[in-house]
Amino acid sequence: MKITYIGHSGFLVELEDNYLLFDYFEGIIPNLDQSKELIVFASHNHHDHYNPKIWKLNHPNEKTRYILSSDIPLVDNKMKNVYEMNPNEMLQLENIVIRTFKSTDEGVAFLVEINHKIIYHAGDLNLWKWEEESDAYNKKMEAQYLKEIDLISPYGIDIAFLPLDPRQEIYTEGGIEAFVDKVKVNQIFPMHFWKDYSVIQKYNQTHSIKVNEITYEGQEFNI
Predict the structure, then answer these.
(1) CB neighbour burial string for 192-203, b if at least 16 within 10 angstroms, e if fewer
(2) Domain spans of the chain?
(3) How confident is the model over 21-70, as pLDDT tens digits?
(4) pTM for the predicted model, two decimal places
(5) Is the N end or the C end of the chain the one with fewer CB atoms within 10 Å?
(6) What's the rounded Cα separation, in Å, for the pair 55 and 66?
(7) Which Pfam families match (predicted)?
(8) Sheet holding 2-7, edge to edge
(9) What is the largest CA-CA distance in the chain?
(10) Is 48 helix (H, G, I), strand (E, B) or coil?
(11) 221 close to 188: Cβ distance less than 8 angstroms
């Protein structure tokens, strides 16, 4: 399995017969093997998670499928191989099972079972606590986040893409901390860090469970 960091929350996962492209927003997508199927995921309609350019990817149409949160408008309602998903739904496509969870912001998070691997992309499902918000707001956010994480916890996850947003200041690391406290994860890739790579280094310096250290767009990891 090869994972390429595209940018922000965008990742390309290359498997034996498939590519999984998550939340493309900006950056360079590597050249793709035209013999492999491309499955494009978009977790919600925010500009930093969904770019309409995904509809024009240079890949054979019959080998491209789109899995979208239902809040994303379709460019053409007659398009084939497009699947809209609400929170807490399941979709099976041959040997691929896709489950969704409700975001604490907008849209969904994706849990993908493929080739005996489980891959999780959080989208904007995160513990969005902020210093400027009230205690009541932050407690409500924590309860919502933990409720969804409890639903994910029965699954052993091979790869998890999780937000690590420095804008949250003292709460930046809370989402990942709460996630790994409840969910067994083999490999964690941080995302949504707004090009501030130092937040990844800081996390690894202060936590026993490490995340993969991303240092530039286009970086590849062989897992």
Answers:
(1) bbeeeeebbeeb
(2) 2-222
(3) 999 999 999 999 999 999 999 999 999 999 999 998 878 877 899 999 99
(4) 0.97
(5) C
(6) 9
(7) Lactamase_B_3 (PF13483)
(8) 82-85, 64-69, 37-42, 18-22, 10-14, 2-7, 220-222
(9) 52
(10) coil
(11) no
